[in-house]
Amino acid sequence: MDTMHFGTCSWKYESWDGLVYEPGSSKRYLAQYANTYDSVEVDRWFWSLGKRSYGLPDPHDVREYDQDTPDSFKFTIKCPNTLTLPFSYQSKTEPNPWFLDAEVFYRFIETLEPLIPKIGLLMFQFGYLNRSMFKDRDEFLESLDRFFSLLPDSLPYAVELRNPAWMDTSYFSFLEERQIGPVLLSGYWMDDLDTQLQRAGSHLHSPFCVRLHGEDRKEIEKESGGKWDRILESHDQELIAIAPRLVKLAQEGKVIYINVNNHYEGSAPLTISKLMNYLRETEADDVRI
Fold this sequence. Notes:
CATH class: Alpha Beta
Number of domains: 1
Shape: globular
Number of helices: 10
Radius of gyration: 19 Å
């Protein structure tokens, strides 16, 4: 499983004491986190679009993230929603002037300069795109093609769509041809991950990301009471189903980032432990066969 990178969606949770962090430790959370996992998803820079302007990362935070992690550590970074929201802040009709704007992307990347060697993926998260935004998928993909043609080839990109009907084999082929990885999401009306992996077939450009996100945030947040240290809603069936596919892809040399949210089962660290066990069992079965 050398090409699989396990990480969580964010990392600042006091309830992970004993799971990830040493109780009472004075070390910063990320520095402790990096002793257990080799990657993490950063979403704090995603929420950037304002009413009349947009935000960029604080250089101090970027330097701190670099200082707190070893050279081998990888960040999967959600790019600003300034780039991925078709409409302006809290509007359903006013176009966002910075949607898929390459100049904004370059400004964003400039702020990340110290972290560039540690970037595993730059993820572009789009919501549910409908006909009020694009007449059809082809129009969206044409816009995406123009945008990526302006970006540097040296960086690893991935795209997350939340339109299961748009994610057929031709969609994965489109990404593969442009050397863009898909983000396969569990949650938000998406097909189950096993179906998504089957549909992608041989067209999974590497690196790509599997995001174990979850469905009803409000319900699980209420049930957790803000403590993310136990399994609240088991997704063993999905984890068992995808384990053989992930093992096979890793054996083929595909680089896979597995990003787990607390909202998926109630505790991202415990979900990662479960999935790693299923992956080991799959590998052991393969050896016995």
